[in-house]
Model the fold of this input.
Amino acid sequence: MRTKSSSAPRSSRTEILLALSILVCAFMLTFFVKGYVLFQASMVLSYAIALVGLNLLTGYNGQISLGHGAFYAIGAYTTGILMDRVGASYWACVPASGLVCLVAGYAFGMPALKLQGLYLALATFALGVVTPQLLKYKYLESWTGGVGGIVLTKPSAPFGLSLSDDQWFYLFSLVVTAFMFVIARNLIRSGTGRAMRAIRDHGIAAESMGIDNSHYKSMTFGVSAAFTGVGGALSAISIQFVSPDSFTMFLSISLLVGMVVGGVGTLWGSIFGAAFIMFVPGLAEGISKDAAWGIYGLVLILFMFVMPGGVMGLIARAQTAFHKSRNKGTA
Done:
């Protein structure tokens, strides 16, 4: 009993040490790379937050979404409108975008409660398809900028810090990402997280145990949308531009692909999935511009064959094999 109880705190300490190591390495990246590489790193962070949101919905609650690019767009446009039209500070726009998406996600999740499986997937697919068209709607052009979109300015470092705009915003994105990961980790490990997983595993059994399925599903949809909206807000500031054509249906598919590649139902897998979204299409285009998407598809198929549980699944299998071999050696 003693060994069993002590293993949980040990694994928790290992996770914290790993997280701190990753955070320190990410922080040091600020001073070793410049310009476009820092922009790419900022985009990876924005995608990672969005993938955490999608994983909360699909991986931990079992609701399929093919339209999370819509919430990414809502978050980006909320930040764009607040910064350009209202003159709000960038640091205030990020939580505001999350709040707007929380309300939008909860509002969409309420009627979607009657839908499950493929029907829910089709409903979210429709959301992803219609959002870019709504952003072009002529009566909203005064706010959204229509087809032309909105141009933003990347914030400069405050307090006279000798950092470039790219360095400062990368550090800001890193702090926001760390904060969002902590929130997600605490949520997953709380009673709410256990209720979410119970609904995913067996909805009827969860309801018979007194869990309010409707409340938790709607809440999860809202929280998931909020995370995705924060990711969209960071991407808007990083790119310094938002337009309807930036949020096509392919974005929603890419987020789903990133979640699967990183590992469904995992928190840290979001980082690997975000890196896949950011770098693999560019690498495929670098190999052959004419067959870029064919190469992208082949890489994705190879990933699924080699790592059916995603990157985190592969790491888990490697850890299990290592512990088995270690136990055999000590025996």
Q: What stands out?
A: The chain has one domain: 35-330. The chain has 14 helices and two strands. The longest strand covers residues 150-151.
